[in-house]
Write a structure and sequence with these properties.
about 210 residues, alpha+beta, 7 helices, 12 strands, elongated
């Protein structure tokens, strides 16, 4: 059908043009999702930081990202400039962000869930946002991998009964990737913010700050 062929050709051209739109510059040719010996990746840090930035208006203090939600390295392409298409290749699922409250003890239990049944070997560890830190020891038994009193926010130890505002994608928020603790989050606030939009907005902001 010539009319349908022409319509599809125009649709593909429009799509290609949108995907090729530049977003922002990177300081490096690309950002890898390859994990280091601690279970952390540069791309995981970047995406988690972008979720944290998007969650600030919702009072968010901590953001987590699952490795399975990031499907490719972030490629800077020509002149280290990320395009819409390159960002979508990293976060292709259309997940939206969800804010919730978790108490300190729930966050500690959440971290221990990373190693339940040896799942860390398959899915890796959660990627965490700037300011959140903890230490873990793989030689310790299941349920006690996280070192006591090592979980901190901006250098201050988490208080077990204090509430902290957390943001994740809707897949994790529903307990996905075998993290059921997220499903117990209180004061949940769904947003219309796509994870990929949080990433591109963060890249733009960092470039505008002169810190790509």
């Amino acid at each position: 059908d010539p009319a349908l062929d022409a319509y599809l050709r125009k649709a593909r051209e429009r799509s290609a043009a949108q995907l090729a739109r530049p977003v922002a510059a990177l300081a490096v040719p690309g950002v890898t999702r390859e994990l280091d010996d601690n279970g952390e990746s540069p791309l995981g840090d970047l995406v988690a930081d972008s979720v944290l930035a998007a969650g600030r208006p919702f009072g968010v203090q901590i953001a987590f990202m699952n490795n399975g939600g990031m499907r490719q390295d972030l490629d800077g392409g020509t002149a280290n400039r990320v395009t819409i298409g390159k960002a979508l290749a990293v976060l292709p699922f259309g997940n939206k962000l969800v804010a919730m409250n978790l108490k300190g003890w729930q966050i500690e239990e959440l971290l221990e869930q990373q190693w339940r049944g040896g799942r860390d070997a398959v899915r890796g560890l959660l990627q965490v946002s700037d300011g959140f830190a903890y230490r873990w020891d793989g030689r310790r038994g299941e349920g006690s991998k996280v070192m006591p009193d090592s979980v901190t926010l901006n250098g201050v130890p988490l208080q077990k009964e204090s509430s902290y505002r957390v943001m994740v994608n809707n897949f994790l928020a529903e307990g996905g990737d075998a993290f059921p603790m997220f499903a117990n989050g209180a004061n949940r606030a769904g947003t219309d913010i796509l994870a990929v939009d949080a990433l591109t907005a963060y890249l733009v902001k960092r470039e505008e700050m002169g810190k790509p």
